[in-house]
Specification:
12 helices; transferase; about 375 residues; Carbamate kinase; Archaeosine Trna-guanine Transglycosylase, Chain: A, domain 4; five-stranded mixed β-sheet; alpha/beta; 2 domains
Amino acid sequence: MTREAVAAAHRVVVKVGSSSLTSLEAGLDEGRLRALVDVLAALRAAGRDVVLVSSGAIGTGLAPLGVTGRPRDLATAQAAASVGQLRLMRAYADAFAEHGITVGQVLLTADDLTRRGHYRNARQTVDRLLALGVLPVVNENDTVATEEIRFGDNDRLAALVAHLAVADALVLLSDIDAVYDGDPRVGPASRIDTVTGPDDLAAVVLGSAARNGVGTGGMATKVEAAFIAAQAGVPVVVTSTAQAAAALAGEPVGTLFAAHGRRPSARQFWLRYASRPRGRVLLDAGAVAAVRERGASLLAAGVTGVTGEFLADDPVELVGPDGVVVARGLVSYDAREMPGLVGRSTGDLEPDHRRPVVHRDEMVLVRASVGA
């Protein structure tokens, strides 16, 4: 897909990083926020749907709490998120209201995207908000997150939301204007205009964000997110917030990640990118060939063992004799049932245990490439 596809996209997901909206010293920069809102409001006025994925809750909350520097403990980061999320959403609500646009807050945790039922509910919520003419503002629910919080690292979340919202394009905004073939801060580097696949960046070393600001996503996470979306049929532009309007208009700014995959079903996408495997099923060489080359279901005869504690219908990884993950799928049996099935042919099993261990329709192959 070309840049014209981005310009023509009816539904767009736009992600903005913390470094574009906040600073450690001053907190939220409402001027920058309003400039972005003006761009997104213009899209809405043109009849396009917009979903905004916004970082910045923690950076917004630091100054009101009198906290200087990056929080070193989870509790302080969560407290900053609690204060900052309220202020951030109030700023968005006020700015969009000047354009006659109502916003709705959608706070997600990793659990909301790794559990299939939660993922489905999140999708229904976003769909309904858009149908009602509301602009969803999505952020990770940092206030209750149980894993280490990273400032502004919402790039992967944005890629997942792009599929969840059935978006036609994704734009990742930060203080970095494009992907370069080197580090422009230390020497000559050229902007990469278009990426058609992982091989285009094979020789490029992607850096992480500087640790003295409020953003920690870095270019590596943006590229990972861009490949996730592009492989699912969604074109992506990575650029700076200052170039948001130009990128959304299809102008040659930033780096375009051309869509090079077919949009998968919600279940297939969830399995590949959002599910959290609860265990592993070990396969012999014959089963690997059947699954990978013939697209067959996994039968008990090809299983050599299992690891982990999982229940029927949980996501698991299918692993070959060499330790390489071949596929991911929804298992048909509890882990405690599996030892009695390992290596046995279907005809030797009790009737209740003759269904595949993982059915082909509940499985996705795992490719050994960036973003897969």
